[in-house]
Amino acid sequence: MRWLVALLFAAGLALGQAEPPRVFWVSQPVRSGQTVLVQGAGLAGLPLATVARLTDSEPGQPPAVPLAAGEQTWWPSSARALGDAAAAVPLPRMAEGLWALRWRLRGTWSTPVLINAPELWFVQGDQGDTASPGGWLGVFGTCLRLDERSPMLALAADGQPPRLVRAAAPEIGRGTAYGCYFRLPADLAPGRYALYVHNGHGGPAGWTRFQGWDHGPLDTVTIAAPTAWPTTEFAYDAAAGADDDARLAALAQRAQASGGGVMVLPATTLHLTRPLRLPQRTLLRGAGRERTTLAWTADATAPDGKPVPLIAGADLPRDDGGRRASFSLQDLTVRGAPTLGECLVERSQTTVPAHLTRVALIAQRQRNEQEARPALRLNSTRNFTVTDCDLDSFWCITVQYASASYLRIAGNRLRWRGATMNSLRDHQNVIFEDNALTMAGTFRDNGYTPEQNPNPGLWWDAFDSSNVRDLYYAHNTSGREEAEPPHTCIGITFDGNGAAYFGRVAAADGTHLTLAAPTNAGDRYNHPPCQPGAFVRIVAGRGLGQWRHLVSPKTTQVTDIEVDRPWDVAPDATSWLAINGFQGRALFVENDFGNEPCLQTYFGSHDVIWAGNKMGLAGQRTTVPVWYGTIAGGMQSDWHYQVLDNEIRGDSVDLVSVNANFGKLPEDYAGPASLGHVYRGNWATGATRFGLSLPSRMAGFVVEGNRRLTELRTKDVAGSLGLLIGNTDATDQPLRPTLPADSGVTLAD
Questions:
Q1: Tell me, what's the pLDDT at 528?
Q2: Which of 230, 302, 505, 657 is most buried, taking the most CB atoms under 10 A from its CB?
Q3: CATH fourth-level superfamily of 6-115
Q4: How many CB atoms lie within 10 A of CB 666?
C-alpha cells in the first residue's frame, strides 16, 4: 500500500462528529478474508463502509489512474471502530489482489483508500545511491509482490515516455514480497527519474511512486554510468624490497602514481607487520582466498605506536569523493596477528562505490569484548558491497560513530563471537541478505554470562541523536558450533534513539509548529537531541496517529520547528507531540533464527515487519518483544509493528506487544502508549509453547489467525482497543479468552 492520506468525506458532517474521518495508515499485506487495521481520525462513529477488489486489467503506464465511478463491484463491510483513531475492516474471501475502501455519508462517497498497492520504503542501486545502465535497482517495502505475478518497474523522466522493466532479476537476489531486484536496460539514458512500481494487480490504479528520505526529501532515483576505475595491472615483484611490507608498499606507490589500478598478488602467503594503505580507485586482487594470504605477524601501528587498521584507504590530498581513498579487495585472505590491536579492514570517509568480493577476513582468537576488534569497520561511508566473503572475528562488522549508508552485505559466511553486525549512530539503506551466521565457542567462553546481561548478535542501534532506517534483513540463517544450550542473550536488538521533545503544541500553521516548551538540550557529548529526518509524531489529542519528518536544522532548546509537509488534521492545544530520532522501516523476512533467543525492537521504532521467519530454538525460551517508555527525555512508542506468518518452533516462544520500561508517562498524559500493531498468521509446530501478550494502552491492534497458541495473556490489556479474531488454541480449536471488562478489546468469531 502506498502512503495515502485520504479525505474520507467529500462534504458535510455526520453522526455528531466535529469533522469527517481521515485515514493515515492501513496495515498490509492483507489476504482475502483477513482484517485490515485502519488508523486515522474521527473513526469512532463509522458510517457505511464498503470494499471492492480492483480488476486486474492491463496497468498501462504510470502515474496511477484514479478509480472511475461504477468501475468496481463494492461489497458491504462490517467495519468495527476501535475508538476514534482506529478501525478493523474485514475483506471478503475472494482472489488475492488490490482492494479499495470507502465510506458513505449523506449520499456522498469518500475518496477510496487502496490496500495492497506497493508501498515503497527505500531503493538501492548497483552503485549504492545510484544505478547504472544495464545495472540493477533493488526496491524495498510492502506488497511488491502478491502472488506469482512479476512486479513491474517504470522509470519516467520529464518529457519522455516511461521505461518499463517487466521482469525481476533473481540473479541479484532471491526476492520476496518485501524486496525485489530489477535489471535495467543497457541503453537507459543517465539522469534523474521518477520511479514507479506495480505488483501486477489493480490495473491502472495500481502504480505507486517512490518517495523517500536520504538526509532530505527524495522523490527521484539517479541513473549514472559508474566512474571507470583504472585497469592497469601492477604485478607483485618479489625483488622490489627487502621484505613483504616493502614490496607491497612499492606496489601501492606504483598504483598511486598511475591514479589507481589493479594490484595483482601471487598465490602465496605474504608476511607483514606494517599497515597497508591503498590508493584511490585501486583493486587489490589475489589468486583466490585459498591461495593468496596477507598474514600479519605483529600489530600494525602508527609512528606513535598506537594500533591502526591493517588495510585502509590512503589519505587523499584533495577532495575526490571523500577524505580517504576508496579501494576494493578481491580473491584473497587477510589474517590478523594474535595480538590484534585494531580492525583488519577499514573503509571510511568516502562515497566512491567499492566492494569486497570472495575475501576472507580472519581475526585471531579474542577472549572477550574488551579485547575484540572487528574484521571490517565501516565509518562515514556509503556505496559499499560485501559479497561471497568469509568473516571470522569476535565482531564481524561494525558501523560506528558516523554515517554509513547504501550498504549491501549478501551471500557471506560470518563466524562470530560477539556480534555479526554492530551498528551505531546514523546509518540507513542497508541490505543484509543470504548470509550464514555461525556463533563460535560457548557463551561463557565469549564472556557472555548471566551477570553481564549480554547483547550479542545483530545490533541495529540509534544511540544519541541519530536516525537509523531502511533495513532489509532477509534469507539469513543462524546457528552455533557448540552443543551447549542457548543462553539468555539477545540475538537481534534495536537500542533506542535520541529524543528532542515530548509535550504539548502551542500553535500549528502549515509546516510550522510552535511548541509549548523548548526542545531538549544536547547530550554530554554536545550532540543535538535529534537530527533533520527525525520523526515528529502526534501521540495524543487532535491529529493522533500522524507523523512527519523534521526539517529544522537546529533542534536544541528551540520552540519553533518545521516539518516536511502540512498536517492532514492540524494539531491544537489538546495534542501531544513526540520528536524522536527516526528508527525503523526495517524488514525481517524469511530468515531462520536458529540462534536468537531474543528478537527485540527497542524504543521508538516505526514501520517494522517480521514476516515468514522461523523463530524459536531448542533448550531456551525465545522472546520477541517490542518496547516503549519515556527515555532520553522523550516518549518512545512503537508504531506500525507487524508480526506475520512466522513459524513458531523450538521449546517456547513469546510474542510480547509493548513492554513498558525506563520511566513513566506524565500524570496529565491520557493518550495511548503505542498504536497500530498486527499479529497475524503465526503458527506453532510440534509441542512448542506459543505465548502472546496483548498490549496495554494501545490505540488499535489486530490479533488474527494465529494457530496453536498455548497462552494468550490478557492481564495488562487495560486501556487498549483491539480485535481478536480467528485464533486457535494448542489443540487447534477456536480460542476465546476471557477478557477484562475494561479492556476495550473486541472478541469476534
A1: 82
A2: 657
A3: Immunoglobulins (2.60.40.10)
A4: 12
